[in-house]
Amino acid sequence: MEVVPLKIMISGAPASGKGTQCEFIKSKYGLVHIAAGDLLRAEIASGSENGKRAKEYMEKGELVPDEIVVMMVKHRLIQMDVQENGWLLDGYPRSVSQATALEELHIRPDLFILLDVSEEILVERVVGRRLDPVTGKIYHLKYSPPENEEIAARLTQRFDDTEEKVKLRLVTYHKNLESVISIYNDVIVKVDGSLPKEEVFERIDAILSALRQKKLKTESTSSVAAGVAH
């Protein structure tokens, strides 16, 4: 299958299933998965100029300024593996200033996937989550309960997996999302994230497959036109 480098952004509230969908997309389409948090940690670990600057802010307990993170994203997007395989930008940009900075660098997606899940379902997903401190595995009391009583007895709940905390996180997420959406209105596609994860991916897969075909067609038309011009 011919590789057509797609440029995809994906956004979703906490517990929308974004991580799972990123895995599915990466596995089928070979896109390079880029999450700003991972990028930040990698740059700090490598001791790069941007990493050193970011570390200074973090050591003071301050947020790393947008321009530093945007430059990290830019540098990652021009690497050869990304140029060849395309990119999947996960949960970034999160604010209108980050989106605007990317626009100024002419970094724009072919598609912005928004996982749409009602607050009621998101809260239920988060509040029912439990962690097995022994294996590190995440369970859900309703959707993926523990295999036996022994595991059930030792499960713990993360301190911020409460209804009150998740509702606060959702308020922040929606407030930021509204401003970001305005920039990507023409390339946004909403996918119902409340469905089972396989069904959610079926929908995303159909959208990405159509996009890839469209890009293939455009590229072959342009190369034919270029050939004619010569």
TrEMBL record:
SUPFAM superfamilies in UniProt: P-loop containing nucleoside triphosphate hydrolases
One MF annotation (Gene Ontology) recorded for this entry: AMP kinase activity
Enzyme class, broadest EC rank: transferase
Reaction equations catalysed: AMP + ATP = 2 ADP
EC number(s) recorded for this UniProt protein: 2.7.4.3
Family in the record: Belongs to the adenylate kinase family.
Pfam families: ADK
Location of the protein in the cell: Plastid, Chloroplast
Keywords of this entry: ATP-binding, Chloroplast, Kinase, Nucleotide-binding, Plastid, Transferase
Main subcellular location of this protein, as a coarse class: plastid
Protein name (database record): adenylate kinase
Record-level GO cellular component terms: chloroplast
Highest taxon above the source species: Eukaryota
